[in-house]
Protein 1
Amino acid sequence: MNNAGLATKSVKTAPELMGVRGLFYFAKDPLAAFTHAARTHGDVVGFARTGRSYILLSHPDDIEAVLHYRGDELRKDFFTRSLGAIFGEGLLNAEGAHWKHQRKLMAPTFQPRELSGFATSMVACTDELCASFAEGDLRDVHADAMHLALDIVVRTLFGSTFKRFDDVERALGGISDEYRQLWQTWRALVPTWVPLPNHARLRRRRAELDAILFELIQSKRAAPSDDLLSHLIALTDDEGRGMSDEQLRDESMTLFLAGHETTALGITYMFRLLAEHPEAYARVVAEVDAVLGDRPPTRADVERLPFANAVVREALRLYPPVWASARQATADVVLSGVPIPKNAHVIFSQWVVQRDARWFREPERFRPERWLGDECANLPRFAYFPFGGGPRVCIGQHFALLELVLVLSRTSQKVMFEPSGEPLTLGPVVTLRPTGPVRLRVTRRSRPEAPRAAAE
Ligand code: HEM
């Protein structure tokens, strides 16, 4: 798709995003900055700062051309590559032949039909969380969702007998804090080769997690069980070779980090949106009651819950956990008529495109029903892409969608959330994080329940 034959599109400059002033303007509110740039200057917007040049693409066809491009001239962006310090060479930032080999090896493990066993853990973890909710509690659903999503990823990856959850949670929290400090404060202006105390702390946190992971890899090699890590250990390529301990470490660390915070954000915004839209919430509850009654949901139930699925899709449209992605050109290339010079970054934002009135009626409104009829049937493919697309589409998308629908349906059998009246403020870096707690009030469902000890 290096379609040099197409008429070349012009790149409009966004003066407000240029230079150090542009950097501060962007840092203050990246969502508004990109949305304003795209709505004001068009679908192909250029800007430069701190020695790097960027092109923001906001037309689905241009984004498709980039994400489906298979040539070597595009690689992952500078920021994702920097995550290699933690991920190693896991799927998210591997490139070329190594990425292709690992993706082919791991893809079958994440097919929907392979996920049934994980559904049981997802529901069990949700039950534990629900058991901690009391009538009238004001809960930070973001903190709850982070804990839940980590619990789910740890249990599916390492099995339900894994004992060091607290150590993992602490180390991951530390890594996330260090990254926030490095990218969201004045430290973002310091060249990456300048050593800062944050780098040393990051290395320590990584070493803590490495020790846990290597120990686990050894024990699963000796005694495999029915968890994802044991599956990964058992995989062999066409030549009969399995992964080394280092590769297993890199891939499990990647699945951990790529799969935990993203899904937690999906859960957080889904509950907040429902709390603010009682009619939609009542429809979820009615659907869950009719399809499931009191029994726990399974993977097979997911397709019997069309409205719950629509809620999940709509929450990921309005609050995409990965709000922007990028690629860097390693040589001059023309894609979809857009000239991309060597070293430039192309950026595309799920936040900007998924709220574009050209593709979505009433784009700022939460309307799950838009996904049920024909309204969204003829969308351009990349008008909605919370999981990216093309060969590097999220490998965990079926896992994440399963988790979101199961968490929604299981929770709705037991509790509902009401708004706390507090505003939501977003502070996106890599993911679309809230800046503070996202508090919602718990009401337990009024229909008769079995005594708590027996039910939960
Ligand atoms: C709502 C939850 C999730 C969202 C919104 C999400 C989003 C994404 C996006 C947008 C990408 C592509 C990035 C790019 O093209 O640069 C991606 C890649 C990836 N995601 Fe997810 N993700 C989610 C959940 C998960 C889960 C649960 C896992 C694992 C269990 C996972 C593992 C990965 C991996 C390994 C990649 C890299 C794939 C590759 O390059 O081959 N993600 N994700």
Note: Residues 86-316+365-455 form a domain with the Cytochrome p450 fold (CATH 1.10.630.10).
Protein 2
Amino acid sequence: MSTIKYILSLTFLNLLLFHVPFYSYVLEHIEVGTADGLLSLFVVMVALFVVNIFLLSLLALISTKVLKGFTLFMLFSAPIALYFMSTYNTILDRTMMGNLFNTNTSEALSYYHPKMFIYLFIGLLLAYIVFKIPIKKSKRVKLLKFGLGITVMGIVILYINSSKWLWLDKHAKNLGARAMPWSYVINSIRYKLRELKEHKKQILLPTATFANPKEKIVVILVIGESARAKSFSLYGYERETNPRLKKEDIVVLKNTKATATYTTASVHSMLSYVGSSSDSYEPLPNYLQRQGVEVIWRTKNWGEPHLNVETYQRASDLEVSCKGDECNYDSVLLTGLMKRIKASKKKKVFVVLHTSGSHGPSYFEKYPKKFELFKPVCKTVNIKECSQEELNNAYDNTIVYTDYFLATIIEKLKKEQGLNSLMIYLSDHGESLGEYGLYLHGTPYSIAPDVQKKVPFLFWASNSFKEKRNLKNIDFEHQKEHGDYNIFHSVMGAFEMNSTIYDNKLDIFSY
Ligand SMILES: [Zn+2]
């Protein structure tokens, strides 16, 4: 078989066998039976065909061996990818490939199902059949003409149907993640490149010393999500959204502004020693881990910097051992937490709980039913359809649940009498609930309203911590302003760490 025929046959085989999720996505998003729907289908098929011919020709231009090697890989791996996509209803975008690379063996084994073997067998069989087909080398010039010819033809067809560009652009990510085998090949490369960049970027910070290395202390940092200070009664909201925290001996820090209006930038900034999302230094958890602190990161969210910590647990990891009716909510992050902390042999323990808090638009799904204090609530993700009252109610209920979540941590720490402990809570950014016609968050910082910037920032400390650090004599009320730049230095201060980068002016316990 000539190389060109081989490429064509392989393309048809690929389009025929491995694109069921792709086609079902397309059919779900066009109006089947209308001329417009047919045109979308035609354009997307042309695009898919051209992409396959173009990329396979590129491989053939390198060498027929490379083309054949890739084909075998594709025929063997695509059925397995299809199995995962259909079983777990996922798509293979960059984040998913990252998740797969980060899956450990025991997790991977938990995906095992006998049905997988059928897919594996089909893949191996296909690969074997194609392996037996000899390829006759085509001349490079001929190959180039063929690859470019088809590509140009495809571009012309797309150009004529420019009315479909918007549709293609809108669905590009979803279609790309279903185009086999390119979705997982290209997204794996994208993930690895990004990882490499982040690894390279982290400059190590200078070694620190501990003033009291033998003293046990536990610091829990809770990172909130989309919680705005305006909706906390602790910050003057007329509605009682903090019924539990108000009874606790906590310190509420006034005038706290987030440095960004979206999660990734805020969390990076919160963990950076210069308080900026664009710095190149190792983030707080990595630094503490290197200085001998036991670091436990638990998350029901995403967007953290590249972490190098001993314990990294996703909510899905914790769900396995979680009991009760709160395992689908932030409380899953507390599963066995105290036991885990007590089991640590290290004197300094740093826990980060990255919550999903008040992340919209489906506020009503962020808390268990019993926390629905304010009714009626908005029950659609299209929040503009809801009345202002329903929207506020749903959002406020998420704050009531956050209040409960934080109070639960305090209660757990209080029970450990004599344990030197501290809990800090800071939200990543605020949220718009229709003010100035804005919803959610992520408005460019310079024009973002205060509700997206002003965030709750509070802490609770055990009696021993308060006494040791003489907190009674600190006038927190008169600390003029706060920000995520306080986190790094305050945590260092709490552990009584010292190094050349420590800035006591940014440590809230040392003002
Ligand atoms: Zn966020």
Note: Residues 414 and 462 are 7 Å apart (CA to CA).
